[in-house]
Amino acid sequence: MSKGLNISRFGENFTIVKQMGGKYPPKEPLTLDLTYLFNSPKDPIPMSRDDFEKIAPVVVENHRKLKRGEGDCLDGGVPMLGWLNFAEEITDGHINEIYQTAGMLADQIDAFVSLGIGGSYLGLDAAFRALSHNYWNQLDLRERGGFPQIYFLGQNMDPDYFRDTLDMLKGKRVGINVISKSGTTTETAIAFRILRGLLESMLGEDTKDFIVVTTDAEKGALRKLAEEKGYKTFVVPNNIGGRFSVISDVGLFGLAMTGIDLDSFIEGFSEMKKRTDTDDFWANPSMLYSAARHIANTKGKKVEVVAANSASIYHLARWMEQLFPESEGHKGKGMWVSPSMYSEKLHANGQMVQQGERNILETFLKLKNFDNKIKIPRDETNADGLNYLVDKGMTLNDLNRLAVEGPAYAHYMGGVPNMTINIPERSSYHIGSLFMMMERAVAISGYLMGHNPFIQPGVEDYKRAIFALAGKPGFESAGEKIRQEIAQMTKFVI
Asked: Is residue 315 annotated as a catalytic residue, yes or no?
């Protein structure tokens, strides 16, 4: 019988060491590199520094509007700018309450399930995956620092995915955090119905000790249910939209359930807020990033490829895939965000980026320092021809760095202007910084396009269609109209 794999020569996994506790102060800030943005040789309509100089006064004015709480920022009469100052307004007492609630729940469970969709899911999921072991749920309890496994449900309506997740929860003590402002979001509400029913059939009245609700402070179906059942509650702020909400209770409680340092996360968010408060256009990464996207869009760029060189950081690109299109996609405007993982996608759609239609802007999320270092071993046969890497003292980390630096140069020379966001390390401070930089950038970007970046009226169209076809009370006539329109369409099925 063969022996199990021995990986002791690789030493401890420092991601696990970090997750088991300890604070690691940041050594350097997050930076934005625009070196390959200007005058791309094969770009039919290249971007230039002069373009930036021309638009700078307009960007600065919209930036000042945002700081003053002005501009098109209302949703139901409420200015949706609470995220700007939330990190500075949150109290130590509230953070301690989050920690204490998370700690008490974690001590009683094996698995934690976060229920939410869109902004109630993607920000938390991205931050958790950016800061955690890639196989968190497969680590033992000690390696997870005593924290539970984490699962996400309520973000889609795939019955097989739901059933497969239940298999992972079978036989485990389960805690739930349901996140929904109204409590009536279809995907999340169905998931909550099912899991709540399973807990109630097993625990009866004690179920309330295993459910935490994050919802509206005063109203809504979920608020009413929480008060009736005695669930512990946290608040979805009225003045913070979902895709901006990771800095609020929406994201913080879930992060606390996995031992992530909330203080450092909030500090990073707050420090980037101070850094991007400046009216100095060339010193403000949020203004520069929004200007770059706006100029690119006016020059025919319709897709922003956001490429990460880290499997963990890649999930931040997925969050950006919601943040920008949902905020910008109004009135026939906006730029699509396409998340990519390099070097994996360089072997997939890299040909399109290098030589396809020149309608692409590229942004690299470059993780500079990984938790672990992987050396490349020498092979006496050298059948793969890679011993030259060993001779040069290169590691997998060095090659990974080149998976950004090489494409950045090649794509630029091929007509794809690009910029790089340098993330010094996988720390909660730097991830918090990135969230703030992007949220401020997209707010300015929406203002530049002339519309409200804090609402998403188009999202309601598909909801109304689903409600109508499902026969939701009040949507009967709309459902009949849709069915008649579908019946009159010429069928073409082969």
From this structure: no
